[in-house]
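If your schedule permits, I should be very grateful for your opinion on a structural question. The matter concerns a single protein, recorded as an amino acid sequence and a row of backbone structure tokens. Could you please explain, in whatever detail you think fit, how the structure tokens follow from the sequence? I set the record out below, with my sincere thanks for your time.

——
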Amino acid sequence: MSKNFNVSYVCILVCSFFIFSADAATVAYWELDGAEWNGLDSVGGYNLTEVGDGVDSTSKGTITSPDLSPWNGANDSATNPRATFFTGTAYYLPNSGGAEHDATFDLDVNKSFTVEGWFKPSSSSTKYIVGVRHADSSMFGNAYKGWSLAGNTSGLTFYLDGASTSGTGISLTSGAISNDIHHFAAVWDAQAYKARLYVDGILKSEVAGSTQWTLHRGGSLMIGARKTAETVYDYYSGAIDEIRFSDEALAPKDFLNYTAAYWELDGQQWQGNDAIGSYNLSKTGTAIDSGLRIDPIPNPDDYAGWHGFNSSTQNLRSTWFDGTLAYYYLNPAETHDSTFDFDPAKSFTVEGWFSIYSSTAWIVGNRTGNIAHGVNGLWKGWSVQVQTNGTELVFLIDGVAGTGYSKQISAGITPEQLVHFAAVWDAAAYQMRLYVNGELISSGAGDANWTFNRGGQISIGGRDAGTGYNDWMASGRIDEIRYSKAVLTPDNFLNKYPPCGAWGYLKGDLNKDCSVDFLDFAFIAENWLECDANVTNCN
């Protein structure tokens, strides 16, 4: 027998086994969703114990959680759309042996970490949100050691102390922030030897660590206060939610808050609902002919982690737009939502799939010229649209209160063909980018005159031209629209997830179980001597 086996499979199989292994970055995730679940870890085994006067989670009303739970562990809360209000209470992690800390969360200058979550303070005094920074005289000689996040109505501070003597600590401050719910991320990057502090995905401060630092432990990890020996003090006053500890130096694209909205568009029951946030869309137009038009990926719920209250149980279909249908988001208090406004200082990515049969089609955007939306009759905002008889995909931004400042980039497409798109505004590079099927097709600089400028209602499948959604109505399929508050690259796009079943199989998935692993390698080993040019499973 000839051994005509394609040896490239060996690399594919072995490499893919590691590429598609589970992400180990998240060590612990505390959802903080009501008294029943407040101290439980949804990912690891780091359940926290309550200390203090009890959680006031009801008298403050329901504080909407910014995240609808991508975690589905044993402790996953069934009441996730609420945060915990802290006042005179705290949670701490006691080691199973009774020690005052767990080494998992120690400050080690050689090991990166990220701690992130949401907070809304109600006190002007600086109080502790989360951390292990303590000054127990029996352990540290009254010198602070470890790391912590503290905040008040004026901002955040990230403290790090990594030496056995005092005077070597550093602190990073966010500066003034609005008195509202904010996402924070505190990062220690061991490779760069720098600490970073982000608020709402924006870098607020970056400081190098002290050269005198060594491996140095902290105390017991706590949420809502700090602890010195047996004394608990500096109780936090306000809301804290969704605290995640990761063992890597994460970038904004990896933070919990980078996906703001995700519309699955999967049948009439869930068509306009947002599976990740609260941006549910209303329908305008005729009924939907959804049928069983297959979703571009087998089930994003299995890969992307969308398991919110609005998550569709019929994800294997997309929405058919018939030229009269559109979805739009209407904030009850006004005619748009600032979440999707264009701000040249804030990056964003919008992506999804479409196959368009009409000569022009509005895919998604908030660009409007409606005077009622406060844009004085001038086009403002951003959009992704198809034009030129269905052969051109356009990403367009109007970012200033005046005419002549629009910028657009485009990509050629084939009418009626299903494609994945991603439109990116990179604030740091001041650049627009347009991807088709994961490939960068076009890019261009923004206009130097752009300023923060609001748009209208965000809509899918039709444009608000000033008198309602009455033009650029799409005819064809639109599916899986995601809006992220970060610059994403092809590695982060939704279409990176491997195909399976009706959409084909990964190269090397010889036993067709929708994964490439050592089972496929075993299949090759078992049939090694039978491989020749006529055995298709070996080529």
